Amino acid sequence: MLYPLIRKFFFSLDAETAHGIGMKGLDLMNASGLACAVAKPVAPCPVDVMGLKFPNPVGLAAGLDKNGDHIDGLAKLGFGFIEIGTITPRPQDGNPKPRLFRIPEAQGIINRMGFNNAGVDVLLANVRAAEFPKKGGILGINIGKNATTPIEQAADDYLICLDKVYNDASYVTVNISSPNTKNLRELQKDEALDDLLAQLKARQLLLAEKYGKYVPLALKIAPDLEDVQITAIADALRRHRFDGVIATNTTLSREGVEGLANGSETGGLSGKPVFVKSTAVLKKLSTALAGELPIIGVGGIMGGEDAAEKIRAGASLVQFYSGFIYRGPDLVSEVADTLATMMRKHR
What we know:
Layout: H1 2-10, H2 15-31, H3 35-38, E1 47-49, E2 52-54, E3 58-60, H4 71-75, E4 81-87, E5 100-103, E6 108-111, H5 120-129, H6 131-134, E7 138-143, H7 154-165, E8 171-175, H8 190-211, E9 217-221, H9 227-239, E10 244-247, E11 268-271, H10 275-289, E12 295-298, H11 304-313, E13 317-320, H12 322-327, H13 330-345
Parallel strand pairs: 3-4, 3-13, 4-7, 7-8, 8-9, 9-10, 10-12, 12-13
Antiparallel strand pairs: 1-2, 5-6, 6-11
């Protein structure tokens, strides 16, 4: 009951300011041992995906904690895994503010952050200072390219990040689907994708040998894909033996927010309005992959039933971010409970 009151205060502030205050508040609660007071117990529901053992299939999507500043506070809320980033080789400011907009009537968010982050070295220092990974918590690190790196040299940025984060990540996500870095989505196209995946896979195998451990690679794709593109991406993922795929990022569509305040802002739309679109892509991708690699379902999860629908569409794990902003920590336990019940019935 507490979160609706807290949300009222946060929603009276600029979205990015509120985000900063909220995350600092979470850190304070964690430091004072009060984080458990806002989080309900989470049903255990262990799942094995990408060779990793997840305590439950409910994850935090990348974007909420770009630099890994708040890993331990977030871990106290019951997530089965946490994904941080998107991180780039060099620090960058991202796009000019304001760049984060709520659409409360539709439970949506539009962002055009532009991979604002402190750079991969700062993220790694934060990861190494956190307790969650030391205790075996599953931590995904989401990597991208700097805005100033020409698209023809994008692979270099991904390889720099992969080299640096490999030994500290449970899995690494390759983000080629943000709509807020110029030309980034071009990397989803046939030849560019083939080249990028080939280089990343070759580097992953070298790093596995170097560190004596295999860290899975996942690709994060957009919801704005034609059926033929979905099939081509599935084929490329299989061909290069990627370990997983995250479906999906934010959408450029404005379906469901037409005429609403902030609805016409530039950027990627997330939250409830993207649910149908992202789930449709997930379902088509699942059919195209025929179970050959697991899918993490993201996009518009606002309750337990939404998460169950992602699983029914072919996902092995789920993640959310915008739903967490609207629903608070209760969403973690609700989704975990729903999925635990669902998976028990199917055993």
